[in-house]
């Protein structure tokens, strides 16, 4: 009989024995219910407004924004799903007006989403993906030159929202079957192209579930699943380098930006940790050096760094501090891929794409060393 391979912690695999951890006895047996994946489709319509976060945007607002979105989600699996209560992941396609038909027009976004339990039936939704803006800045006409909000049709898109999806449970009241959604949708290009003030559209929407949850079996067992025995999150040193492109001015030439850093990640939480580090920045006209610290959001194979730093050597005289948002995705072995954005306050300086390396080949929980 051929030997079967086994990948430890490749998902929420139940342990089929009673496990003793140090001096702690886990000696409880129970009949576990059948687990299922629940696929859900919903359609929402709503309205809102373009947030005039810069004075230049205020004059461009001509009315209210309108939107419609279609959202699919399923219950999160793997260790990420085990370490959170009722977590879901999915995708959203959103179509909406901006409330500025002459200067911005219509926007479309395609997002990958993660829904995290907040309280009761309410969820926090975090989404990221690509967006399209119909009207952008240009030099071909006087009206095009007034579109100072954004200079590129294809942009990065982010959504943060508080959602209460409609219930599909038998006996639910009519108002429980209607979903409620409050979202803030952002589009910008990270200063890859100027101008780049970015758009922020705040919306309120109601939704209906298009069909009942489609339940698919995931795993069946008659033994207690011991979820307390999980591998530790990756901590310690990480070295990373990245290259980006930016346009300093609307009619200026793009320049290449390089960055390299060393981070120390600490904390034993599956969801949240800390980070301290140092960075070196370089562009054709100058170089900078900074130190930073902040939080790390952990989603098994994806880590998101939210840090604030101070320049020890400024590469722009007017800027003493910086912020970084970096998405690190595990690739294989000690290697990671990172996508980051450096900002000064709320003003983007440059996006960057790069790689990271972890000494000793430590891999995130749920991933086998290679």
Explain the overall architecture:
The protein has 370 residues and is mainly β. Helices cover 4% and strands 53% of the residues. It has three helices and 19 strands. It has helices at residues 55-58, 78-82, 142-145, and strands at residues 20-21, 24-25, 36-50, 65-75, 88-97, 106-119, 122-133, 154-164, 178-188, 199-209, 214-217, 236-246, 255-266, 272-283, 286-299, 302-313, 321-332, 335-344, 347-357. Strands 3-4-5-6-7-8-9-10 form an eight-stranded antiparallel beta barrel. Strand 1 and strand 2 (24-25) form a beta hairpin. It is flat, with a radius of gyration of 23 Å. The protein starts with 19 loop residues before the first strand and ends in a 13-residue tail after the last strand.
Number of helices: 3
Largest sheet: 8 strands, antiparallel, barrel
Indicate the proportion of strand residues.
over 45%
Strand line-up in the sheet with most strands? 3-4-5-6-7-8-9-10
Report the principal-axis shape: flat
Please compute the radius of gyration using only Cα atoms: 23 Å
Tell me the span between the first and last alpha carbons: 26 Å
Mean pLDDT: 84
Short note summarizing the structure:
4% of the residues lie in helices and 53% in strands. With 370 residues, the protein is mostly beta strands.
Secondary structure blueprint with pairings:
Layout (H helix, E strand, L loop, with lengths): L19 E2 L2 E2 L10 E15 L4 H4 L6 E11 L2 H5 L5 E10 L8 E14 L2 E12 L8 H4 L8 E11 L13 E11 L10 E11 L4 E4 L18 E11 L8 E12 L5 E12 L2 E14 L2 E12 L7 E12 L2 E10 L2 E11 L13
């Amino acid at each position: 009989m051929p030997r079967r391979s086994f990948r430890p912690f490749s998902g929420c695999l139940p342990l089929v024995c009673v496990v003793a951890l140090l001096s702690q006895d886990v000696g409880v047996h129970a009949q576990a219910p059948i687990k299922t994946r629940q696929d859900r489709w919903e359609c929402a319509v709503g309205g809102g407004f373009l947030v005039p976060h810069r004075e230049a945007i205020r004059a461009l607002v001509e009315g209210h924004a309108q939107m419609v979105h279609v959202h699919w989600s399923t219950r999160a699996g793997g260790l990420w799903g085990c370490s959170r209560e009722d977590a879901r992941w999915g995708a959203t396609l959103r179509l909406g007006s901006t409330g500025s038909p002459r200067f911005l027009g219509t926007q479309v976004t395609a997002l990958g989403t993660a829904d995290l339990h907040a309280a009761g039936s309410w969820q926090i939704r975090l989404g990221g993906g690509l967006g399209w803006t119909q009207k952008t800045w240009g030099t071909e006409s006087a009206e095009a030159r007034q579109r100072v909000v954004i200079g590129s049709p294809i942009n990065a898109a982010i959504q943060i929202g508080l959602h209460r999806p409609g219930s599909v449970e038998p006996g639910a009241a009519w108002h429980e079957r209607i979903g409620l959604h409050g979202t803030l949708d952002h589009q910008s290009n990270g200063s890859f192209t100027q101008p780049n003030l970015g758009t922020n559209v705040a919306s309120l929407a109601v939704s209906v579930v298009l069909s009942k949850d489609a339940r698919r079996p995931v795993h069946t067992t008659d033994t207690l699943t011991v979820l307390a025995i999980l591998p530790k999150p990756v901590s310690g040193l990480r070295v990373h380098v990245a290259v980006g492109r930016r346009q300093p001015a609307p009619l200026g030439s793009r320049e290449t930006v390089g960055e390299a850093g060393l981070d120390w990640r600490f904390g034993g939480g599956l969801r949240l940790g800390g980070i301290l580090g140092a960075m070196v920045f370089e562009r054709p006209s100058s170089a900078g050096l900074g130190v930073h610290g902040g939080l790390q959001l952990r989603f098994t194979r994806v880590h998101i760094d939210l840090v604030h730093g101070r320049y020890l050597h400024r590469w722009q005289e007017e800027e003493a501090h910086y912020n970084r948002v970096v998405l690190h995705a595990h690739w294989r072995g000690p290697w990671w891929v990172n996508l980051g954005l450096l900002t000064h306050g709320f003003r983007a300086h440059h996006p960057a794409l790069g790689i990271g390396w972890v000494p000793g080949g430590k891999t995130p929980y749920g991933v086998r060393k290679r």
